[in-house]
């Protein structure tokens, strides 16, 4: 799991690959110029008998909305691009360094984590440009953790960190054929992450395998729980898994076919499949937008106050900056979500309180009632529609997804590659109640193992256009 053959040699190998491959996909916006030096220092520690843990010497990429004291943190925006790096690492980055990980660089993202304008294209930011899907260069890498997902798929690192508010880890994980864990909100510290919503935001691992994601989750949470210990075997004979057909299936015939095959594999592992269930619709779009808009203004302005003097401090200042740099920032889509958030009246607003209550009921009550009423350990569903064609003019064309209920609830979700549709990766998500990561990791690993036994290793990207 860790790097036992020399961190410096591995970093050198990855940097060479980065120079060859990343120009095709544009996943890394800020390489770490000190990565090789840091890796050599960790090799010395190993030689002297000091091994910090299973991930000692492992290179990790970090999404560019997570604070790093030695590298810029821009959230993809030119408004932060010329600012000094944050004064200190985010707590999760400190944990990575303390565990002996090598910070290889920062990954591009959908600007402001896809919450600036409603017609945005996932994977585009004014600072980092456009990230492309390694499996189909004219198709989306998903968002908003686009660079993290594409980089892992392209072999630029086995380990990366993404963040999610609603789908921003599990979407690019599914579209790029990698594993993504969106943990329970609060399990990983939120400090030092450019925010949208304190009730929904969380960082999480994006890796090649479930076991790697589990090991990285242990580091990120600072927990005594060794999540990778749950990646043992495929016996699910004591597990009941629910299949909520409505509203999470039926939007993509090819995806449904791959997902039906996944249910067969889970059943072959001994799991009891409780089929033809349903979740309530996850509330109206208006309620969800009210929650995010109200929390964005409060949370983002609190974050901006932690950055160096001279930079933007309010949403109004960010809006003005974008207007002043409209030829770049507003070239492809607007900032009506920013403008809506700037007009909100705080977290005591009756509009916010009512919308937040509706969101909680749709998310937590929907999931928990389904689990309780059917004596389920978890639920499973197709992750996201296959990667859509990149369209910077009109924005994303997402047919459907499985992330909203877990997002509104603040509950965990794991996406695992399940197969391909016309050569495009698709994924399966495992969801459950709060802090059910141990169960979900066990199920995800069993499925991953069974799929590989049945179908062989997941295909590697060829960096070509999709017809």
UniProtKB/TrEMBL annotation:
Keyword annotations from UniProtKB, A to Z: Hydrolase
Amidase domain mapped to chain residues: 10-440
Pfam families: Amidase (PF01425)
Molecular function GO labels: amidase activity
Gene3D superfamilies in the cross-refs: Amidase signature (AS) domain
Keyword set includes Hydrolase: yes
Origin: domain of life: Bacteria
Top enzyme class: hydrolase
Known EC number: 3.5.1.4
UniProt cross-references to InterPro entries, sorted A to Z: Amidase_dom (IPR023631), AS_sf (IPR036928)
Keyword Amino-acid biosynthesis: no
PANTHER family reported in the protein's UniProt record: AMIDASE (PTHR42678), OS04G0183300 PROTEIN (PTHR42678:SF34)
Official protein name in the record: Amidase
Organism: Kribbella solani
Upper classification of the organism: Bacteria, Bacillati, Actinomycetota, Actinomycetes, Propionibacteriales
């Amino acid at each position: 799991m860790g790097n036992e053959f020399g961190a410096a040699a591995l970093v050198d190998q990855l940097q060479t690959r980065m120079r060859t491959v990343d120009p095709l996909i544009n996943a890394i916006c800020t390489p770490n110029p000190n990565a090789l030096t840091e890796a050599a220092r960790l090799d010395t520690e190993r030689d002297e008998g000091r091994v910090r843990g299973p991930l000692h010497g492992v290179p990790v990429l970090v999404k560019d909305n997570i604070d790093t004291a030695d590298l810029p943190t821009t959230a993809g925006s030119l408004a932060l691009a010329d600012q000094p790096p944050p004064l200190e690492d985010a707590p999760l980055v400190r944990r990575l360094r303390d565990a002996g990980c090598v910070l290889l660089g920062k990954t591009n993202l959908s600007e402001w984590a896809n919450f600036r304008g409603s017609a945005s294209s996932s994977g585009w930011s004014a600072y980092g440009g456009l990230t492309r899907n390694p499996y189909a260069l004219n198709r989306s890498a998903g968002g908003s953790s686009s660079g993290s997902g594409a980089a892992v798929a392209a072999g630029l690192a086995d380990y990366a960190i993404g963040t999610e508010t609603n789908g921003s880890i599990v979407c690019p994980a599914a579209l790029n054929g990698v594993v993504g864990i969106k943990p329970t909100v609060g399990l990983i510290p939120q400090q030092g992450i450019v925010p949208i919503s304190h009730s929904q935001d969380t960082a999480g691992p994006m890796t090649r395998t479930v076991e790697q994601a589990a090991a990285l989750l242990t580091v990120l949470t600072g927990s005594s729980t060794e999540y990778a210990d749950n990646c043992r075997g495929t016996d699910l004979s004591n597990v009941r898994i629910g299949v909520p057909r409505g509203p999470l299936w039926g939007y993509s015939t090819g995806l449904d076919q791959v997902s039906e095959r996944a249910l067969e594999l889970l059943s072959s592992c001994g799991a009891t499949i409780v089929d033809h269930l349903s979740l309530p619709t996850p509330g109206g779009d208006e309620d969800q937008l009210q929650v995010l808009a109200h929390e964005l203004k409060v949370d983002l302005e609190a974050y901006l106050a932690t950055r160096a003097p001279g930079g933007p401090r309010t949403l109004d200042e960010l809006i003005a900056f974008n207007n002043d740099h409209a030829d770049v920032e507003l070239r492809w889509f607007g900032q009506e979500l920013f403008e809506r958030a700037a007009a909100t009246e705080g977290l005591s607003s009756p509009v916010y309180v009512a919308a937040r209550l509706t969101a909680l009921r749709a998310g937590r009550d929907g999931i928990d009632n389904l689990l309780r009423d059917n004596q389920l350990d978890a639920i499973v569903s197709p992750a996201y529609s296959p990667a859509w064609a990149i369209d910077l003019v009109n924005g994303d064309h997402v047919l459907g997804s499985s992330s909203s209920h877990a997002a509104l609830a603040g509950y965990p979700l794991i996406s695992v590659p399940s197969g391909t549709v016309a050569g495009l990766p698709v994924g399966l998500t495992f969801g459950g109640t709060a802090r059910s990561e141990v169960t979900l990791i066990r199920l995800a690993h069993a499925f991953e193992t069974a799929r590989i036994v049945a179908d062989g290793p997941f295909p590697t990207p060829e960096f070509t256009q999709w017809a």
